[in-house]
Amino acid sequence: MPPEPPPMPADADSPALPVGPAFSPLYQQIKALLVKSLQDGEWKPGEAIPSELELAARFRVSQGTVRKAIDELATENLLVRRQGKGTFVATHAEEKIQYRFLRLTSDDGEATGWERHFLDCRRMRAPAEVSRALGLKAGEPALLLRRTLGREGVPVVLDEIWLPAGPFKGLTAERLAQYAGPMYGLFETEFGVRMIRAEEKIRAVAADAVSAGLLQVAPGYPLLSVERLSRTYGDQAVELRRGLYNTASHYYRNELS
Amino acid sequence: MPPEPPPMPADADSPALPVGPAFSPLYQQIKALLVKSLQDGEWKPGEAIPSELELAARFRVSQGTVRKAIDELATENLLVRRQGKGTFVATHAEEKIQYRFLRLTSDDGEATGWERHFLDCRRMRAPAEVSRALGLKAGEPALLLRRTLGREGVPVVLDEIWLPAGPFKGLTAERLAQYAGPMYGLFETEFGVRMIRAEEKIRAVAADAVSAGLLQVAPGYPLLSVERLSRTYGDQAVELRRGLYNTASHYYRNELS
DNA sequence: TAGTGGTCTAGACCACACA
DNA sequence: GTGTGGTCTAGACCACTAC
Questions:
Q1: What is the DSSP string of B120-170?
Q2: Cα–Cα dist A86/A80, whole Å
Q3: Which nucleotides of C are covered by protein (CB under 7 A)?
């Protein structure tokens, strides 16, 4: 559906409304069309999208307009540009930097990978708070997954992960254990769910008995509580996760500007 | 100093070096010139910089090239664009959103301001760790400032702030107390030090006796420890701060993508 | 050599703010 | 109305990658 060649504001259909004119630049419309193609699976994670000139021809706009749309999608990490090669759909699998969303760094800047250990994966009724966050209907089932991440035999992270049962039908701890690479990579390739962005709420809490046992610390030990709500295209929430981090030899890094 | 009008790569001066050609796009050079003008104080925080056309004429490049340079500085929060009005130097003072770098949010989304209380401001020899972070020479003096931020009479944040004594000569707790607005605003207007970006390292810790007293919690209570290194132009570190946050009814928010 | 993204230009017109 | 930033176009050339 090519938009009108002359860049006109979407014309007001109702003359005396108090709301704004809802003007939308062409490149924003192109951007929305690109997101729709991503959402519809026209291009899959890791694949190249058509070249800028092809897209310009398809949408009947100039290359510069397509470029601006892609630029924004690239800064939002939906796309990745590679000079001389093309523009690619971002992916959590096959990435050099694994665990794109995990902001935990070791005090000594070592780069060894994480030792993963899946505890269990149960299907159950979601608590009201989880249902609300994930937009589930009352009584709709969810999956509760627990796992740890460790370094040199010592557990550092304990994650409790809530997922809507529908899109993740067939997910088991065994399946996760045998998949090499980050969890979000498996979600992409096996369930077609792509994590685009997330919000985290961070607090300091005292370890309860269960968490203390799993993280090998004393009850009451201060832990970082990281509550993450992850979203896919269209800002739809698809994961609620609560991580407990032992920050004795790791820290959560953040950059401000 | 206008760069060469023909956009040529800075020509290789050493033919057989294994290093790259150090090609730098024109708009990056313009960007560097703009940063230099900011650093030299040609335009002060809150002021407007010249229009894009003026800058294009000054640097002998097209408006589009200036635009791209400004775009990047705007996304880095060094400049703020306001359609129809101009482009302005970012400031911590006179901002609608005060405390630009404080990522602490109340559980109920209330927007009441912070109650500030300055405890003391002492000039002293900086510990080695602080000297290293701030790039001070051995024995060079520093200021140690302590303060709390509270809501409804309850302290929530305890900050311990290290500053190089030189640039902040004359800073006292009294002066801070009588200044309305965020501390970084005063740093800008009174000392010409502008905080541009910062890195934070976040951990969970147990309250020690002193902190517990000041934050009105029991010793051992879990607190969020936020260590912030703030930088000014040229990535020079100018502040090392350690905040202890009571996250009983507040959380540190972060967005991932 | 061909194809991709990256840079740069020049000019037109639009949306917004302010006097 | 004038000046500002914002959008859009068309075309040229450069840098990088792969064949």
A1: EEEEEEPPHHHHHHHTPPTT-EEEEEEEEEEETTEEEEEEEEEEETTTTTT
A2: 9
A3: 3-11, 14-18
What pLDDT, in 10s, does the model give residues A48-58?
Answer: 999 999 999 99
Q: What is the tens place of the pLDDT at every residue in B90-137?
A: 999 987 778 999 999 999 987 789 999 999 999 999 999 999 999 999
Instruction: Give the nearest partner residue to B255 out of A199, A223, A247, using CB atoms.
Output: A199
Cα–Cα nearest to A198, from B254, B227, B149? B254
Domain with CATH 3.40.1410.10 in chain B: 104-252
Which nucleotide has the shortest C1'-to-CA distance from B83? D5
Which part of chain A is CATH 1.10.10.10? 26-89
Report yes or no: A162 and A123 within 8 Å, Cβ to Cβ: no
- A256·B201 Cβ contact <8 A: no
Answer yes or no: is A70 CB < 7 A from strand D: no
**Which residue places its CA closest to the C1' of nucleotide C8?**
B65
* Residues of chain B in Cβ contact (below 8 Å) with chain A: 75-77, 100-101, 103, 196-206, 220, 222-225, 227-228, 245, 247, 251-257
Encode pLDDT of A98-111 as tens digits: 899 999 999 998 77
CB contact under 8 Å between A256 and B228, yes or no, is: yes
> Distance (Å, rounded) from C-alpha B120 to C-alpha B8?
55
CATH assignment of B104-252, among 3.40.50.300, 3.40.47.10, 1.10.620.20, 3.40.1410.10: 3.40.1410.10
Q: D12 C1' – B95 CA distance, angstroms?
A: 43
Could you tell me the sign of the dihedral formed by the alpha carbons of B236, B230, B232, B147, in that order?
negative
Pick the CATH number of A26-89 from 2.30.40.10, 1.10.10.10, 1.20.120.1200, 3.30.470.20: 1.10.10.10
pLDDT digits (tens, 9 = 90+) for A11-26: 333 333 344 556 899 9
